[in-house]
Amino acid sequence: MSYLRLALIGASLTASPLHAEWISGEEAIMGTAIRVELWQDDAAPDAANPGRDAIAAVMNEMRRIDRLMSPFIPDSELSRINRDAAAQAIAIDRELFDLIQTSLKFSKLTNGAFDITFSSVGYLYDYRAGVMPADTQIAQALPNIDYRHIALDSARGEIRFLRSGVRIDLGGIAKGYAVDRGIEILRARGVREALVSAGGDSRLLGNRHGRPWMIGIRDPRAPGREGKPVAMLPLQDAAISTSGDYERFFERDGVRHHHIINPRTGRAADTVRSVTIIGADATTTDALSTGVFVLGVDAGMALVRSLKNIDAVIVDRAGKLFFSPGLAAPRETSNKHLQPKS
Length: 342
Ligand code: ADP
Ligand code: MG
Hints:
Elements: H1 2-14, E1 21-29, E2 32-40, H2 50-69, H3 77-84, E3 90-91, H4 94-109, H5 119-122, H6 135-141, E4 150-153, E5 158-161, H7 174-188, E6 194-198, E7 201-205, E8 213-217, E9 231-235, E10 239-244, E11 249-252, E12 255-258, E13 261-262, E14 267-268, E15 272-279, H8 282-306, E16 311-316, E17 321-323, H9 325-328
Magnesium ion (MG) binds at residues 172, 241, 243, 286, 289-290.
């Protein structure tokens, strides 16, 4: 009897009992901050720590996707495509093939505003070093931007660039995709309430114990954590992405050169400061936030209105806010991801 009691005390010292609680983790991956927050039930057996394990699994998935899709890693699959696909059709990783195919779908949907071949000119910019291409360089490379230069053969799993000088970069969609993968991993492990975010792309699983998650939209001219958000959105089971002109930029002669490129000009899209898209999955909201940023308020909102379960908040270049109809009248919203305030 006393031996048993001692053994029990010993066990509780080595494996401290888990409490039901919110736990979180943050790491720098894919050139941004990855954050995972989840509700851990207390039903776990001794010595197991499923919540922490799940967070680690999401972080590992982010590292895997980065190694596959980074244009900055010379031996990534994406770098290999940029090196070899203009010379001949090459067989590529299926997951990457599928995301490129999805990217082409968003190019058609946005009439070319979202275009992963933006990089044919975009790679000439170095925002950290304040380097930009000369006008003649832009003019020379501009014809290489066009998603129709990408030929995909689904049966063979092959990609080919139809002209030399074409480059692709998945920076406008890969983080959203990685967030979706993170949510899938958590769901498969039985997590029911969680947030996964990669920079400006987030997705929410469930809600916060019966209350919606409250997600703020940053003020594009005071984007730090201190700045007061321009809007707060109550969300559940939703994805939300913001594209802004404040994430990566430098200024020259009064012009802000930032990382969202208008494929028609090879220069930073300049009619808005930020675009936030709300929808079901983060791959979609990421691609659309970039595409709608290029389209601007009128064409962008027209596209948003034409899509089911998609809403948007746009801050234009004068700082004026625009809400899509589903947000302007949240009680009557047709977007099932938005929680009407009660
Ligand atoms: P972030 O979360 O980094 O702010 P965004 O979703 O706003 O990302 O996308 C910006 C990134 O998208 C750029 O850094 C670049 O990699 C890529 N990009 C820039 N212009 C375009 C474009 N017209 N179409 C597709 N991708 C783009
Ligand atoms: Mg994006």
